[in-house]
C-alpha cells in the first residue's frame, strides 16, 4: 500500500513539474555535425548530367501562358507548353537564388535563418483528417487547426507556425486560406507558411503580411515560406505557377517541391527519381529568378515511393531515405537551401510502424543537411491524416534531433578530468557537480519507470500518454501578445475579402 502511494505521488510530482515547466523556444538550429554524402563527386555528376539531359532534350511543361512568356525572355526553346533550355541558361538563372535567407516572424525573437549550416523544423501540412483528442478519426476543423498552432507554438524545436497544418473543412474553401494565416499569426508568433491554392489566395497572404510587417518591409523581406508541388513527371500547372509568380514578385520564399512517388510519378529508381525531380525543381527555381532575381527558393524533394500492391504513396522506407540523402547533395551542388520531409507515416495510428516510418525520414533529413525540415509532427495515413498524439511524440523526436545535430562539446574537458579525479575508481557520477549541470538529453514523453510502477499507473501506451500530454499542453497554453490594432486590421481584411469572394469554390 505504501509503495502504491509512493508511486502515485511520484507520478503526480512529474505531472506537476511538466505543468509548471517554462515554455522554451529554441533558436534556429546551427548544425555542428557533418552532412552525410552518400555518393562521391562522380556519382553526383552522373545525376546532374541526367537531369541536364532531361532539361535540354525532353523539357518540362509549364501549363500557364504567363509563365511561358517569362521563358520567352530567355533563349529557351518552347514547343506548345513544353520548355527546353540549355544547362548554361538554367544554371545561370538558378545561381541568382540566394543560398540563405532570413524568414521574419512578427515577434523578432522568433525570426529564423534558412540555409548554410542552419536548420529549422516546420509543422505538418494539409491533411484533411485528424485523429482527435478522444482518439477518433474525423475531418479536421478550424478548432483543430487552432489547437495544433498552440501545440506547435509550445514545441521547443519547432521554429515555424503553420499555415495549413490541417485543412479546416468547416471553413469554405475560398475563405479558408485567410483563416489559416490568421490562426498562425494569432496563436503563435513564429514565422508562418503561406497559401498556394490560387493566385488570389497567395496575394491575400502577401497582403496580410503587409498588414503585419508594413508594406515596404513585407515587399522587400521574406515574411512567409510556401510549398508548391509539380505534377510529376515534368509538369508545372497554372495553380502552382500562379503562386510562384505572386510570391517571387514579393520576395517571399517558396519550396519548389516535385511530387515524387518512385515507381509511379518518377522512375522506379533512386537515381532516376532524383534526376527527374532535380530537373523539375531547378526549372521552377529558374522561373522565379526571371520574375525577380534574388527571390529565395528552396530545392524541395518529398522523397516517397509507391506501393506496387495498392498504388498508395509509401513513407518511411530505405528508398525514400536514399533519395532524401541524395537530394541534399544535389542542393549543395546548386548552392540552394534544401527542404527535407520527415515524420510522415503510412500507419493509421501512432503505433510502432508510425515511429519506424518517421525515423527513416528524420535521420535521412538531418544527415542530408536539410535546411527546412517540414512535417515535423503528426503526419500519418500517407499524409492524409494527422494525429494529436503523434504530433507531440514527433515533436519530442525533433527536440532530440536538435540536440543530436549540435554534435560534440569540448568546452568542459578540464572539468571532466577534475570530475573523474574527484569520483575516482569504483564510485559513481550521479551526485557530481558536472553531472548535475550536464545537458544529457532525456525524452520528455519516454517512460523510464519500472514495469511495476507503469502497471500501477494504468499500463498506458505511448499513444495514450501522448494524448494526455496534448490536453495538459492545451491547458497551460498562453496566447502570445498581439497589438489589438493589428488584430483588428487583420480581421477587417478577412471580413472585407470574404464579402468580395463567394464562399462557393469555382
In short:
This protein has 506 residues and is α/β, with parallel strands linked by helices.
CATH top level assignment: Alpha Beta
* Main sheet: strand order: 1-7-18-17-14-13-11-10
- Total count of helical runs of at least 4 residues: 18
| DSSP summary, beta strand count | 20
Q: Which residue ranges are poorly predicted, with pLDDT under 50 across at least 5 consecutive positions?
A: none
The secondary structure category is alpha/beta
Q: What is the global morphology?
A: globular
Between the first and last Cα atoms, what is the distance in angstroms?
66 Å
How would a textbook summarize the main sheet? 8 strands, mixed
Task: Kindly identify the CATH topology.
Answer: TIM Barrel
How much of the sequence lies in strands comes to: 5-15%
**What is the CATH superfamily?**
Trimethylamine methyltransferase-like
Per CATH, the architecture is Alpha-Beta Barrel
Question: Rg from C-alpha positions?
Answer: 24 Å
Amino acid at each position: 500500500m505504501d509503495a502504491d502511494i509512493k508511486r502515485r505521488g511520484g507520478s503526480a510530482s512529474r505531472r506537476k513539474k511538466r505543468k509548471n515547466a517554462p515554455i522554451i523556444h529554441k533558436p534556429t538550429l546551427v548544425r555542428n555535425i557533418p552532412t552525410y554524402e552518400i555518393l562521391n563527386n562522380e556519382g553526383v555528376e552522373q545525376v546532374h548530367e541526367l537531369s541536364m539531359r532531361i532539361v535540354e532534350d525532353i523539357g518540362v511543361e509549364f501549363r500557364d501562358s504567363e509563365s511561358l512568356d517569362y521563358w520567352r525572355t530567355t533563349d529557351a526553346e518552347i514547343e506548345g507548353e513544353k520548355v527546353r533550355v540549355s544547362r548554361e541558361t538554367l544554371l545561370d538563372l538558378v545561381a541568382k537564388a540566394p543560398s540563405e535567407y532570413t524568414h521574419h516572424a512578427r515577434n523578432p525573437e522568433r525570426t529564423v535563418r534558412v540555409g548554410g549550416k542552419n536548420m529549422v523544423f516546420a509543422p505538418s501540412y494539409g491533411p484533411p483528417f485528424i485523429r482527435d483528442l478522444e482518439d477518433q478519426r474525423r475531418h479536421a476543423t478550424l478548432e483543430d487547426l487552432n489547437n495544433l498552432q498552440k501545440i506547435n507554438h509550445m514545441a521547443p524545436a519547432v521554429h515555424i507556425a503553420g499555415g495549413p497544418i490541417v485543412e479546416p473543412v468547416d471553413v469554405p474553401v475560398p475563405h479558408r486560406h485567410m483563416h489559416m494565416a490568421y490562426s498562425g499569426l494569432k496563436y503563435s508568433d513564429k514565422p508562418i507558411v503561406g497559401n498556394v491554392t490560387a493566385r488570389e489566395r497567395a496575394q491575400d497572404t502577401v497582403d496580410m503580411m503587409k498588414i503585419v510587417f508594413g508594406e515596404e518591409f513585407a515587399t522587400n523581406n521574406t515574411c512567409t515560406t510556401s510549398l508548391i508541388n509539380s505534377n510529376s513527371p515534368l509538369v508545372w500547372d497554372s495553380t502552382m505557377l500562379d503562386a510562384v509568380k505572386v510570391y517571387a514578385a514579393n520576395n517571399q520564399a517558396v519550396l519548389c517541391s516535385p511530387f515524387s512517388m518512385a515507381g509511379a510519378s518518377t522512375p522506379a529508381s533512386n537515381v532516376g527519381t532524383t534526376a527527374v525531380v532535380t530537373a523539375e525543381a531547378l526549372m521552377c527555381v529558374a522561373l522565379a529568378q526571371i520574375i525577380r532575381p534574388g527571390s529565395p527558393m528552396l530545392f524541395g524533394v518529398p522523397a516517397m515511393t509507391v506501393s506496387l500492391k495498392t498504388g498508395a504513396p509509401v513513407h518511411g522506407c530505405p528508398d525514400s531515405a536514399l533519395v532524401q540523402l541524395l537530394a541534399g547533395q544535389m542542393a549543395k551542388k546548386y548552392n540552394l537551401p534544401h527542404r527535407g520531409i520527415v515524420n510522415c507515416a503510412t500507419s493509421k495510428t501512432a503505433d510502432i510502424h508510425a515511429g519506424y516510418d518517421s525515423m527513416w525520414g528524420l535521420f535521412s533529413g538531418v544527415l542530408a543537411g536539410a535546411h527546412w525540415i517540414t512535417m515535423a509532427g503528426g503526419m500519418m495515413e500517407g499524409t492524409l491524416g494527422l494525429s494529436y498524439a503523434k504530433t507531440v511524440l514527433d515533436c519530442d523526436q525533433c527536440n532530440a534531433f536538435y540536440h543530436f545535430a549540435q554534435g560534440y562539446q569540448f568546452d568542459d574537458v578540464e572539468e571532466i578530468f577534475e570530475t573523474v579525479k574527484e569520483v575516482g575508481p569504483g564510485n559513481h557520477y550521479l551526485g557530481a557537480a558536472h553531472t548535475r549541470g550536464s545537458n544529457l538529453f532525456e525524452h520528455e514523453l519516454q517512460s523510464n519507470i519500472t514495469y511495476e510502477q507503469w502497471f500501477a499507473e494504468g499500463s498506458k501506451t505511448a499513444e495514450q500518454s501522448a494524448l494526455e500530454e496534448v490536453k495538459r499542453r492545451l491547458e497551460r497554453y498562453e496566447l502570445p501578445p498581439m497589438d489589438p490594432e493589428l488584430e483588428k486590421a487583420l480581421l477587417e481584411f478577412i471580413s472585407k475579402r470574404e464579402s468580395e469572394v463567394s464562399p462557393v469554390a469555382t
